[in-house]
Task: structure prediction
Amino acid sequence: METTENLAQREKAKSFAVIPSLNKTVNYEFTIIVPVFNEQDNMPALEEKLSAFVSESLLDSCVLFVNDCSTDQSLQRIVEICGRQEHFCYLSFEENVGLSAALKAGIEATQSTFVGYIDADLQTAPEDFNLLIPYLHEYEMVMGIRANRKDCFVKNASSKIANGFRRMMTNDGVSDTGCPLKIMRSDYAKRIPLFNGMHRFLPALIQLQNGKVKQVPVRHFPRVAGQSKYNLRNRLVGPFIDCFAYRWMKSRYINYQITENNIDL
Result:
């Protein structure tokens, strides 16, 4: 028979137990993560285009903004948008931690079957997600390839160099990992490890789990508002260093699949 002290200890332990909480993304098939850092001028167009896509998506979809501690009015505008758009929600960071962390936080928060990603600069079109969705029954990740890129010569050239070096180092066969239009199975996405530069290796990190990746051409547009967060240094130097980090991690990566459990309530 349990003593009063044992019962009290057991109740105290229960109070500290981590119980998974449901959020609104559980009601959807597909969650679109939109990392935002100082994109206040793009927010009206983002709302318009994402809202239009949600109404015509081939999957029941919602939008999850992740505010990376913007210093402009981006957060205020996100809050206003989510207040009037039923299928929109947001997270906001206490400090600026970067794109990879914003993506990982969004992935961890997502409880839909599929999770996607698009940049707030709208250089890719949300409606092109519908070009990727039909392949999700065959592939664990479907991603865009930017056709007829509208970037300047320096940006295009540095991107080609970085993509070529990364492809050689990872052997992932992906021609344009920088295209910010991707959809993944959420269970695979949640097993992706977080590190600076993670967003450049999403296809390779899915392949480490024996997942299959499909590439589909999508449209590309010039940036019409806001400023790019990338320069020659963080487009070339950082990715080169990250490739060696990925090679080290790949040699030590442990892959497993659970076939049976009784942990669920």
